[in-house]
Every structure is written in C-alpha cells, then in structure tokens.
C-alpha cells in the first residue's frame, strides 16, 4: 500500500504553469515528503487549449488526471466529466472507487461508492476554499482548505495549494474519496481561473 493511502495529513499543490500546460498536482505528507504526483491524461485539442487561455467556461470541459507514486506506479484516476455535475475516482484498471456528484453547484456535493450508494457529503463555504467532508450520519471525516496565495496568483496562474486533514478512522471507500477531494474540487471549481 502506498503512503498516500495511509496519510492523515496531506498537502496538495498545483505548481505555477503557463496556460498551455496540462493539469498537474503534487501530493505531500505534512512534512513535505512527496507521496504522489498527478498529471493530466490524454492530449488536449487545440480548441481545448485555447479555451483554457481565453475567458469563458473552460471548467465545463472534461479532464482527467492519473495519480501515481513518485516512481510512476499508478494509484488512481480522478476523472471530471464534462460540466460540473460528476467527477469519478477509478483504480488504474478501471474499477470505480466512487464519485462526487453535484447537489448544489459550488456549495454541496454527494459522495457515492462504486455501486452508487451515498457514503458522504462535502459542504463548501461561499469562497469555495473550505471543504468539510462528512459521512452519511453527518460525522466529520475530513477537512480540506484551499490556501489564499494573493489576488495576482489566484487570477493569473494555476498555482493552488490545499491542506487535507483526515479524521481517522474512516472506512473505505470514503477515505480514498476524502483523500482525492482537493484534486476533484480544484478541477471542478478552480481549474479555469474564470471569475464566476
């Protein structure tokens, strides 16, 4: 088992990059040790690339990232479908771990397991920077915070940083879904840098 799956405190960072670059994330433990990398799968068309450069609703486009260990061993695929309604988390061989389904765009998400049963929720604050993950009984199982990096960084770059805290013990697959919340919410709410 990768250290990524057993960590209770994570830092998720999306490095600064130009508008033509692919989605990338680094996942570290609380001390800064690199646990996983995520890189966009597939190639973007010229139209998709231009949509990410010019204002508009580019966050509505589908995109997926492959989460791997630092030495390249595949861990998970976080697959945001077209629109804002569905993001799936899959094992590398294709098995569905679970999904994030929009209940209220930008404010509340339902978490489902691979069979479609509800296993939790994510409540989001007005600024879309604070994410509280709860189980079906309302017990808090994780907290994800997006760190403010300043106005210019927020509007002009893709640099985002998240702190993830898991309140163990959390049963699977809710724990894996909680671990991927920062990446899923970033892809859904913050990736395009549109002012919405």
Automatic annotation (TrEMBL):
Matches recorded under SUPFAM superfamilies: Tubby C-terminal domain-like
Domain of life (superkingdom): Bacteria
Secretion signal, residue range per the UniProt entry: none
A cellular-component GO term for this protein: plasma membrane
GO molecular function terms attached to this record: phospholipid scramblase activity
Protein's name according to its UniProt entry: Scramblase
Organism (species): Actinomadura rubrobrunea
Lineage of origin: Bacteria, Bacillati, Actinomycetota, Actinomycetes, Streptosporangiales
């Amino acid at each position: 088992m990768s250290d990524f799956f057993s960590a209770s405190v994570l830092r998720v960072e999306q490095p600064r990059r130009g508008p033509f670059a692919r989605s990338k994330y680094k996942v570290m433990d609380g001390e800064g040790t690199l646990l996983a990398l995520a890189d966009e799968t597939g190639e973007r068309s010229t139209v998709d690339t231009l949509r990410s450069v010019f204002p508009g609703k580019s966050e509505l486009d589908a995109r997926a990232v492959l989460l791997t260990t630092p030495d390249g061993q595949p861990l998970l695929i976080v697959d945001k479908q077209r629109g804002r309604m569905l993001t799936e988390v899959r094992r590398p061989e294709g098995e569905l771990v679970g999904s994030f389904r929009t209940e209220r765009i930008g404010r509340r998400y339902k978490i489902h397991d691979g069979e479609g049963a509800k296993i939790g929720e994510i409540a989001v604050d007005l600024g879309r920077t604070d994410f509280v993950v709860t189980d079906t009984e309302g017990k808090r199982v994780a907290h994800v915070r997006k760190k403010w990096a300043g106005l210019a960084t927020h509007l002009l770059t893709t640099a985002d940083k998240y702190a993830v805290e898991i309140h163990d013990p959390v049963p699977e697959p809710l724990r894996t879904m909680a671990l991927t919340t920062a990446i899923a919410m970033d892809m859904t709410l913050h990736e395009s840098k549109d002012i919405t």
